Amino acid sequence: xxxxxxxxxxxxxxxxxxxxxxxxxxxxxxxxxxxxxxxxxxxxxxxxxxxxxxxxxxxxxxxxxxxxxxxxxxxxxxxxxxxxxxxxxxxxxxxxxxxxxxxxxxxxxxxxxxxxxxxxxxxxxxxxxxxxxxxxxxxxxxxxxxxxxxxxxxxxxxxxxxxxxxxxxxxxxxxxxxxxxxxxxxxxxxxxxxxxxxxxxxxxxxxxxxxxxxxxxxxxxxxxxxxxxxxxxxxxxxxxxxxxxxxxxxxxxxxxxxxxxxxxxxxxxxxxxxxxxxxxxxxxxxxxxxxxxxxxxxxxxxxxxxxxxxxxxxxxxxxxxxxxxxxxxxxxxxxxxxxxxxxxxxxxxxxxxxxxxxxxxxxxxxxxxxx
Length: 371
Hints:
Helix content is 38%, strand content 25%. It is α/β, with parallel strands linked by helices. Strand 8 and strand 9 (186-192) form a beta hairpin.
């Protein structure tokens, strides 16, 4: 009798570039083993439509249709691993976020936050023949939370508390988990991550991202512009907090250009420095008064941007900076692995949110199941 669950976990983040899937074995002692992985790039027309939806361009028919289209693509991605390995207990899918509103809104005396991830789990289950768990964030929001960040739940399992660590993800948005012997676990979205870098690199160079940070390396940081960008109110908001394309969207990026330097490479250099400063400043403002920190462990696409890392080392000179790979966790698959754990707790009916991180009123079992 096997002592593990064989899980295909899938994630697509705010960069909307690909669906990352990994086949993970989670054992009864909560250790894990990555068996295989696969990434499926979004077709260009699908990616463009998802960007439109994430930037408030589209109608209800678009949302309805793309919910099924993304479900089909997630199923296609999962089937590559299913056909190779056969032994799969369930699929755990984050889906694709197209709207996330962590601020309360009111209508007819009903006040609520809201979030929407598409890629319907019933489509995935039907097309693969495998039970699928997903739509995790909504239960936390229903419990008064922001529905994010959720990955800290897995961070605590994966890294423990033997050192005071910051687990820093730099995806489209940057977010950090604080693991310390000196205080309770907490987490928050620092602010912008790769999202604005990618936008400007695509706008000026027709590239999807700044490979190794080479464009940023060729430019100079405009200090005055950088300081003006750091005045964004979100950065000074006290955690718990979360953000995304509802704030840092294309319209926001274009507005920032009104006061930008003339040279394209200086724009990329300054925005890359912004991402690093936002992260470092958030530690100074919200972390260091609660605990000392031994090391920062980087993950996400930003971990591959050498210029971004050099800025981080400049702004955090006394803290050791490592990557997830040094702990045997592939950077690109970290969040997919995290949602494997979330799904594991869903099917075993155990709470899998951390109220201190999301602001929820209580611990809840997040996730829905399609058989």
